[in-house]
Design goal:
With 346 residues, this protein is α/β, with parallel strands linked by helices. The chain has 11 helices and 12 strands. The strands form 2 sheets. The protein has a 9-stranded mixed β-sheet with strand order 1-2-3-4-5-6-7-8-9. Strands 10-11-12 form a 3-stranded antiparallel β-sheet, with no helix packed on it.
């Protein structure tokens, strides 16, 4: 099998490179790719069965991306919340540290599609140094999420240099990595990479699967290598129209994630990022999906449904409403729709 570096070099970046069976409206695709870059590596391309399927929708440019007039470019106000370039300090004790602008695939629903993979996202030694300096001078930050782009696309030695310098900051207790590589290019997770990451515990990795078809033997092996290195794995799924906005699909995905030792962590309502409006679903759809999970499958398979509030308001959990009244007694319905009562404490 080709190395992950070779597969990445063989990625499709222009619509005319798509296999004939998957090509449709190439001129429209090219217009989109000129604004929001296209990258599909051969592994992920091989998961597509036909135009319009859930994998195709996540990977192939759609003219609706450049027709979006609803969503703003930076809905989460990341630029406003960046005290130095490529570091977002939104929460009191946590920071988001962007260390690369590249991904194994450019997802069409990306929150940062305004800049990922483009010259608008400049990350170099100077920005890394500035981010580390800010973290060193801001001791209230105890938890750092290393993201991008995808940090696992960095060479092992470069990623390790960043992790080493983070670990040298006494106030940083937890390091998290956000990576879609276990899903989109799982062969990048080598035994050498897993062994290197193991040296920087406590280290967590949140990955990102959106559909059961993405859970392949290769993805399972990548997650096994990480889990065997003692790295707790979580999944941050995004609810996407035409991809996974179906209760049965989500249940299957959550169960399959547990089989590869990945804990369902979040299901996100899609962010309002420019170029992604066609992916957004009604909030009621997400609540109904949560109701189909709670009580109907293991609690391990039930993530938190949340919306990342526009304007930098942070993540807000959304839960189905089970409470009928609250007073002397709590009266609520259970997952079967039956009425239950719990004597309240006065």
């Amino acid at each position: 099998m080709a190395s992950w570096q070779t597969l990445l070099k063989q990625s499709i970046s222009r619509p005319e490179q798509l296999p004939r069976r998957l090509a449709a409206a190439r001129e429209e695709m090219a217009r989109v790719a000129a604004v929001y870059p296209m990258r599909i590596n051969p592994y992920y391309l091989g998961l597509i069965r036909e135009p319009g399927d859930p994998i195709w929708r996540q990977a192939v440019p759609d003219v609706r991306e450049i027709e979006d007039r609803v969503c703003p470019e930076d809905p989460l106000a990341e630029e406003r919340l960046s005290p130095v370039p490529n570091l977002v300090h939104k929460y009191p004790d946590r920071a988001l540290f962007l260390v690369t602008s590249q991904c194994a695939m450019f997802c069409r629903f990306c929150t940062r599609k305004r800049k990922v993979g483009t010259t608008r996202m400049v990350i170099d030694d100077d920005t890394i140094r500035a981010g580390l300096d800010y973290l060193r001078k801001t001791p209230e930050i105890r938890d750092v999420l290393v993201s991008g782009g995808d940090p696992l696309l960095l060479p092992d030695h470069r990623l390790e240099a960043i992790l080493q310098r983070l670990r040298q900051i006494p106030s940083i207790e937890i390091i998290r990595i956000g990576s879609r590589v276990p899903c989109t290019l799982p062969m990048r997770v080598t035994t050498r990479l897993a062994a290197m990451l193991k040296r920087y515990h406590p280290l967590y990795l949140n990955t990102h699967f959106n559909h059961p078809s993405e859970i392949t033997p290769q993805a399972a092996l990548a997650c096994k290598r990480l889990a065997d290195a003692g790295i707790p794995l979580g999944c941050q799924t995004v609810l996407l129209r035409g991809v996974n906005d179906d209760a049965a699909v989500v249940r299957e995905l959550m169960r399959k994630l547990l089989l590869i030792r990945v804990k369902p962590y979040y299901i996100f309502q899609a962010d309002m990022s420019r170029g992604t409006d066609h992916f957004r679903t009604p909030v009621e759809k997400g609540l109904a999906i949560m109701k189909s999970l709670i009580g109907h499958t293991s609690g391990l398979a039930v993530p938190t449904f949340a919306v990342d509030a526009p304007g930098g308001g942070g993540k807000i959990p959304l839960v189905p409403d089970y409470v009928r009244s609250l007073g002397t007694d709590l009266v609520f319905e259970n997952y079967q729709g039956l009425t239950c009562t719990y004597r309240n404490v006065t």
